[in-house]
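User: Working on a comparison across species. This one is Sulfotransferase from Novosphingobium cyanobacteriorum. Can you predict its structure so I can line it up against the others?
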Amino acid sequence: MTTAAPSIQQELASAGALLEAQPEQALARAEAILARGKVPPAEFLACQALRRMGRAAEALPRLAALAKSQPRVPALQWELAQAASEAGATEQAIAALEALTRQSPQVSTGWFLLATQLRKAGREQDGWRADLSGVHAASRDPELLKAAMAMNGGELDEANAMLAARLSRIPEDAVATRMLGEVQWRRGDMTTALDLVEKAVAMAPGFDLARDFLIRLLLQTNRLPEALEHVEVLVRSPVKSPGHELLLASVLVRLGEQERAGAIYRKLLTLQPDQPQVWQNLGHVLKTLGDQPGAVDAYRAAVTHQPTMGEAWWSLANLKTVKLGPEDIAAMEQALVALEPEAEERKEDVFHLHFSLGKAYEDARQTEASFRHYDAGNRLRRTMIVHDADEFAAEVRAAAETFTAPFIAAMGEGGCPAPDPIFVVGLPRSGSTLVEQILSSHSQVEGTMELPEMMIIAGRLQARVEEGHFPDFASMVRSLTPADRARLGEEYIERTRVHRKTDRPLFIDKMPNNWQHVGLIKLILPNAKIVDARRHPLSCCFSGWKQHFARGQTFTYDLGDIGRYYRDYVAAMAAYDAAAPGAVHRVIYERMVEDTEAEVRRVLDYLSLPFEAGCLEFYKNDRAVRTASSEQVRQPIYRDAVEQWKAYEPWLGPLKAALGEVAETYPAVPEGLAVSG
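Assistant: Here's the predicted structure for Sulfotransferase from Novosphingobium cyanobacteriorum:
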């Protein structure tokens, strides 16, 4: 712009200082300068003041004329764009912003405003690209880089302060907003993190990395329909990425839409067949759908492309009806040797290989070698998870001591009256998948999967105790009014609706850990049914110990821990049986094996359902099954697994000691058993 005389510069500085707080005064002073002659900086100041006074349409022609005479001034193009945007002159705003981003491509705010205007003009893909250019520009912003370094270095308070300060100056900064959301996530504040990342995506819908992060946060909080909505937007990005397709497939798997997920994996493998992770994911889908030969081929393709891929070997070994042969054992032993130099970084591959070799040697009846590898896998995995047996026992005891008969009576009626849910609870490897498969073969019952919703609700309530809102668990539960209980029950019904694919009136939630919450279940869903699947403690615990679970079940990686867990479970269920007789129906696995029809009739009577012969031919049910027993429940009941633990008895001393008399009296409960400390 033209250099003004010193006295005019002083006047301009004085008027400019009034711009934000007193734009009317700033305008008056700028117009006074202009009355004495043509002064472009004063004209610019007048236009700025007009826009801040809400008179953008009045400022627009003056700014356009000024920009025409001085086209290479970025600040002028920015003001013109802002005025045009506010005046509804979208095309004029786009032209100004395109000029600005050509001149100053490093200014992210210009790109983001351009994206907004392009969308207003219906140019969705161009707007998306502008957002991506804005993100790219922000990646070189020194202030944001400094905040990112602090965040990645674990200095979360410092990063939080820097980002908050920036947002106070530039509240529409989508990149800083997303980063602040990540800081809150790292702090463990999921609610605030979600709010911030959702805000960032709303500011810049083409901010692919923010939407990707949002999808992962939604998955962590089990908000699956919202995750699907966002990932279906993400796959339409003009910047194509196989990662977007993989994320869509992951969401579909979580929603039980296995066929759609499988189609995505196949498409990706057609384009690039040497992707072991995608082969493994396809194997998981085919296993769930009951296509065992296809699953075997997919897992073998994964280990062919990456012989040290422990999870793929375990996925193959975990197909309970598949036996790994001498060549497989040699390949896995060789993979362990190859991993030795990087064993610390590749722990997951190492422990998966140990579990796989444990299963392979078990199938070969080399029991000592089998136990050695199972033990090595469990010991390594135990170092990677957190499980405090004492703390867990205290939580179980608190629940058992809360839901006494007088307490239940005092709470009275309440909750959501929906009769839909059937909770199948117990320990993993207790026969719960068999029970689920039998019941889901009934015309009135739909099988879903292990649903986390009840655990999420229970965890949220427990957090209120841990945050100091209540002195103890009992006080928190006692505070729940009938309306609270109804709301929580309705929340459960609503959150699980996405997993129901048929119009059958009843559905199964097979999350085994829900035994910890039977009191809460009956409090908020009084008409729900609870089936407790129980198996001999040595058989069940040993089977769980030699099974690596994809997530959760942190108590299974130590024989003492799993024995204590089983004992706590038996004691807690005994306490609830005494407090609410008949509320829970127990299925003893060994009885189900010996006299299937009688046990099926008993459980159907408990559920008030008529007997159907299809329940005895459960293995013909082609529904998707996602647990470790998916192949076993697709064949008639067999007795081979009932006493598999006996071959390993010489090494099960810690398990026997932890179980105590629970193992000796099974299926009866030891008299006077209390939750162990």
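For your comparison, note: The longest strand covers residues 421-426.

User: Helpful, thanks.
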